[in-house]
């Protein structure tokens, strides 16, 4: 509880009045509820898998509890001279299989989601971590964002490192943020390209990382369709919530594969075309600074309607907690493919199961990002750049192998794919824990 409270941002200067007026406290309470409910949701899913494995209670507790949580305050002088204080955190879950690894999120409602199990599902040699700053980056200038990022590095530099904990992009953080991160860290610790992944390609980044989470999602869907005898990518209609890094790349690749992307949304609006949107044109439209809903190749849609839009494959690719029981009852698709972290609540999950809607869980579906991050890190250690086809081919192999592992547990144990993914991951983490020993 105490550490979650530290997530709430305090502001000095212009914002102090709002804070005193209670607006800030209300926002803090919302963040706290959001953070704790997301962590609880993850643990609910995890317990379901643990129930299937006959592990002693002490080992279960070890697997459920993060190893380290760090909360820091970042004091930043804004362009107008005011001082603002942002709360930031890094949570490190389990490093039995290798250094901690995971995204860094800039969002007003940061949440403590968990990639420990994801790295194990993908069978890459990392443990999990997650971090973020409680901030709405759209309210900061680029200079302020850079200053805040550099302050973050200084504040957490002792618990991160090439062989310690390797952050990466997540919501509202991108290659530019990772470049600042790498540069600031290298000032203190010497040249360290492997301290973050998702860097620009010209600055020790990997070809293929930017598209990797969307590409991995596409490979994941292909495998699922095959297993369910639902045909090919080209045979399906897709609706996608979120048109950022993950959503836009998934849309692009599904469209290139011949699929019909019938609706997409972002935080401001949505656009739909039941015959399929031209995603190439849509991306150009958005890149030119236009809104999704003003796209002439489709009709405007209320963004709330994206999740209930009729389709074969629904892809939440934005924020967590969007599919609760009420939404799950209204969803109009055959499968839900969780490209976002934590889009379905445990209650929503039960409703989807009862309705016979297959859910491909986040810890597998969006594992393409961390997988190509791993490839980037390996290239940094080798000081060598791989060809993009090589990266994509290796990613395909990892996604296919991981799917085969979770599908076989799903069939053998008769459990949903989410439980199967946690079982696979828990078995791998536990094996590493036990073989390393506890002394
Ligand atoms: N980037 C990566 O490699 C990975 C990302 N993920 C997960 O994927 C998800 C998306 O991440 P990413 O694409 O990187 O993030 P981005 O910040 O690039 O994009 C997020 C998208 O979601 C939209 N969005 C934000 N809030 C809402 C909302 N309330 N309703 C509808 N849409 C909303 C944004 O709209 P707008 O642009 O208008 O703000 C934007 O289109 C997150 O859950 C993240 O944790 C998981 C693994 C790896
Ligand atoms: O690339 C990474 O290391 C992690 C990406 C991420 O944020 C995630 O997998 O949730």
UniProtKB/TrEMBL annotation:
GO terms for biological process: L-glutamate catabolic process. Substrate binds at residues 101, 118, 373. It comes from the Eukaryota. This is Glutamate dehydrogenase. Gene3D superfamilies: Leucine Dehydrogenase, chain A, domain 1 (3.40.50.10860), NAD(P)-binding Rossmann-like Domain (3.40.50.720). It catalyses: L-glutamate + NAD(+) + H2O = 2-oxoglutarate + NH4(+) + NADH + H(+); L-glutamate + NADP(+) + H2O = 2-oxoglutarate + NH4(+) + NADPH + H(+). It comes from Pleodorina starrii. One of its GO terms (molecular function) is glutamate dehydrogenase (NAD+) activity. The active site is at residue 130. One of its GO terms (cellular component) is mitochondrion.
């Amino acid at each position: 509880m105490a550490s979650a409270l530290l997530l709430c941002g305090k502001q000095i200067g212009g914002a102090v009045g709002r804070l005193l007026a209670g607006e800030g406290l209300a926002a803090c309470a919302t963040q706290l509820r959001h953070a704790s409910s997301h962590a609880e949701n993850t643990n609910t899913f995890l317990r379901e898998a643990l129930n299937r494995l006959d592990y002693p209670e002490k080992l279960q507790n070890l697997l459920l509890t993060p190893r380290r949580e760090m909360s820091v305050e970042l004091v930043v002088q804004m362009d107008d001279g005011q001082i603002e204080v942002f709360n930031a955190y890094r949570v490190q879950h389990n490093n039995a299989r290798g250094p901690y690894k995971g995204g860094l999120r800039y969002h007003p409602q940061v949440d403590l989601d968990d990639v420990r199990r994801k790295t194990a599902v993908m069978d890459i040699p990392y443990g999990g971590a997650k971090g973020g700053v409680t901030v709405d980056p759209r309210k900061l200038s680029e200079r302020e964002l850079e200053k805040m990022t550099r302050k973050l590095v200084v504040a957490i530099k002792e618990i991160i490192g090439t062989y310690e904990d390797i952050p990466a992009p997540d919501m509202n953080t991108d290659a530019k943020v990772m470049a600042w991160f790498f540069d600031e860290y290298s000032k203190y610790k010497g040249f360290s390209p492997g301290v973050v992944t998702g860097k620009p390609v010209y600055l020790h980044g990997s070809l293929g990382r930017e598209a990797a989470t969307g590409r991995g999602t596409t490979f994941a869907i292909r495998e699922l369709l095959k297993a369910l005898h639902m045909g090919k990518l080209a045979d399906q209609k897709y609706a996608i919530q979120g048109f950022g890094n993950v959503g836009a790349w998934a849309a692009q690749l599904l469209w290139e594969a011949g699929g019909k992307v019938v609706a997409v949304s972002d935080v401001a609006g949505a656009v739909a075309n039941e015959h399929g949107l031209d995603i190439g044109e849509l991306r150009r439209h958005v890149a030119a600074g236009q809104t999704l809903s003003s796209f002439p190749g489709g009709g405007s849609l209320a963004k709330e309607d994206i999740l209930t839009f009729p389709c074969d494959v629904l892809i939440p690719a934005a924020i967590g907690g969007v599919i609760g029981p009420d939404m799950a009852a209204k969803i109009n698709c055959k499968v839900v493919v969780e490209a976002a972290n934590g889009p379905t609540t445990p209650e929503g999950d039960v409703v989807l199961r009862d309705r016979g809607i297959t859910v491909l869980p986040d810890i597998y579906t969006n594992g393409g990002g961390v997988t190509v991050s791993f490839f980037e890190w390996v290239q940094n250690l080798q000081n060598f750049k791989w060809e993009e086809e090589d990266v994509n081919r290796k990613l395909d192999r990892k996604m296919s192998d991981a799917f085969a592992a979770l599908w076989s547990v799903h069939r053998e144990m008769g459990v949903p794919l989410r439980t199967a993914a946690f079982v696979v991951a828990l078995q791998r983490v536990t094996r590493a824990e036990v073989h390393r020993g506890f002394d």
